Automatic annotation (TrEMBL):
Protein name, entry field: Tropinone reductase
Protein's UniProt keywords contain Nuclease: no
Family that this chain belongs to: Belongs to the short-chain dehydrogenases/reductases (SDR) family. SDR65C subfamily.
Organism in which the protein naturally occurs: Eutrema salsugineum (Saltwater cress)
Signal peptide segment: none
Length: 96
């Protein structure tokens, strides 16, 4: 996704089209609640400096900003909305 956002930004910029990607971590939704067990969620939370799962509106607010004229010079970027998760590690390794 990172490279796709960059390539599309370069290809479409002359047409006034911006291309960005948003990279969330585990979002607290009913689907996530049903799909992941408590151990996995606890592990995810322990890796996030913010110390909790993110809420849908936190991702939506970034997407809304990227659609505004105020973000007109932002293109080709992948923006992580993950409470600092990517600062630590991407992998999940359950404790045995």
């Amino acid at each position: 996704m990172n490279q796709l956002a960059r390539n599309l930004a370069c290809e479409w910029a002359s047409n006034g089209i911006r291309a960005n990607a948003v990279a969330p971590a585990l979002i607290e939704t009913p689907l996530a609640e049903a799909a992941f067990d408590d151990e996995f969620k606890k592990e995810m939370i322990s890796r996030e400096p913010v110390g909790r799962l993110e809420r849908p509106e936190e991702v939506a607010s970034l997407v809304a900003f990227l659609c505004m004229p105020a973000a007109s010079y932002i293109t080709g970027q992948t923006i992580c909305v993950d409470g600092g998760f990517t600062v630590n590690d991407f992998s999940y390794q359950p404790q045995v």
